[in-house]
Amino acid sequence: MADNNSVGWELLSILLPLFREQFIENQPRGTNEMEIECNDSTSTDSPRLIIRGYDGQIKGNLPPSPKLNRLRELSRSTGGPLERLDLMDVGLQCSECSNPITDRFGASSTSDLICWDCVDSNLAESDARGVTSTIDPTKAVLSSSALHHKNLCNYVINVATGCTHGCKFCYVPSTPNIKMRKDMLNEQVDVEDGQSEWGSYLLYRDDLPERLNRKLERKRTWDATPDGRGVVMISSGTDCYQDRRTAQITRGCVIELIKHKKPVRILTRSPAVVRDLDVFKSANGLVTVGSSIPSLDDNLVRSIEPGAPAPTTRLNALEKISNAGVPVYVSMSPTYPTQSRDDLRRLLKEFKTRLDPDVVFHEPINPRGGNFGMTVQAARDAGQIELANELEKLQDRDNWVEYSKNQLMTVRELGNELDVPIHLWPDKEFIKYAGEHKEFFKHEREKDDSPEDYPQPVPPA
Ligand code: SF4
Ligand SMILES: [Zn+2]
């Protein structure tokens, strides 16, 4: 039989954890980060994850293995623009083996969290578009880049391998990044030929923001050449806003770079980039946003960029970003041999009046790489016969050189006429055959005085 004292203790032992939980939940933390804590004080069978905002208030109360997209969305919708929930080693559990996620992780096609030990047993899934996707096993986080030669950056971050936009002329599948990873692509997404199947596979780097954070914390040196200026470009080998999952990874990476005071260049064909306008506005000029817009003829562009959103929607998105005071640029590439001087003038005028971009990079289409035949065929299949015929002619070297020279010169002249800062990207191979204009194009390619006004990166402490 229990006496009064033992009843009192029993009651206290029930109430104390409840009070404690209430107390913990209501305590403002005063930190300036969002964070997750695993609150298992009342029951080890059903621990809960408490999400706190930088103001210390509770923003969410979740089971220990919530969906990854829910966590990323919670981070976006409840935090400040530069807040980010870091998901590594905070008490999250693997949906497969229930072990805590202490290091790398990914997500299944239904967004269930998966620890790195269970990644191999996660099977690739195909969607209604015929795109097969899974988790990318690559270790790459922040890679040094030769794109400083194009005045773009010193570093690149790619949030995925593959790109569902599947542009027919895309040079990425002919780079070592795809060619040298033949076995991995075959094993992970059953791809036989990374080039001809380009557009039909996508491997996500879900934990990239977490790994980037740790990499930047450790990094003691930072490259900043005069032509690359320490900029990090997202992305050069995929489209960083092609779907919600890549957009969530991109947002986390941009926030990490801004927090570490690194200049960022976004390049995308997706209007979904506007979803991160709050982040760009908070970056104090550290972020510039650009889109590839070769023409505003949606049907023409769609014929060889079959999976990408229409270029008119890209322009609308960039206009919103520009109107918000964020620096923007245009990659007017690759332009087509069917575009006349008047077409190009109209396009540049549109950029000038609607965007007032810091710079317009220009590159004519190049008939090099294993996929040019596919580009011609895609235009023909889409009924763009004139485009297909003109592209076909570029397979003759003299035609290609003549076309490139004329279009590059025309864009340069129109830039002067319309007061649009132009940066030409003549192809390296083309320069060899540019005759009397060789030195001019060489200078255009190699110059390091881009009109973009970038803040310098802050060197690591
Ligand atoms: S959006 Fe860029 S990376 Fe993607 S397929 Fe097109 S050119 Fe290639
Ligand atoms: Zn696991």
Automatic annotation (TrEMBL):
Superkingdom to which the source organism belongs: Archaea
Matches recorded under InterPro entries: Elp3/MiaA/NifB-like_rSAM, MJ0683-like, rSAM, rSAM_sf
SMART domains: Elp3
Alphabetized UniProt keyword annotations: Iron, Iron-sulfur, Metal-binding
Domain Radical SAM core per the UniProt entry, residue ranges: 149-412
UniProt GO MF annotations: catalytic activity; iron-sulfur cluster binding; metal ion binding
This protein's record includes keyword Iron-sulfur: yes
Record region (Disordered): 442-461
Name of the protein described by the UniProt record: Radical SAM protein
Source organism: Natrinema longum
Organismal lineage: Archaea, Methanobacteriati, Methanobacteriota, Stenosarchaea group, Halobacteria
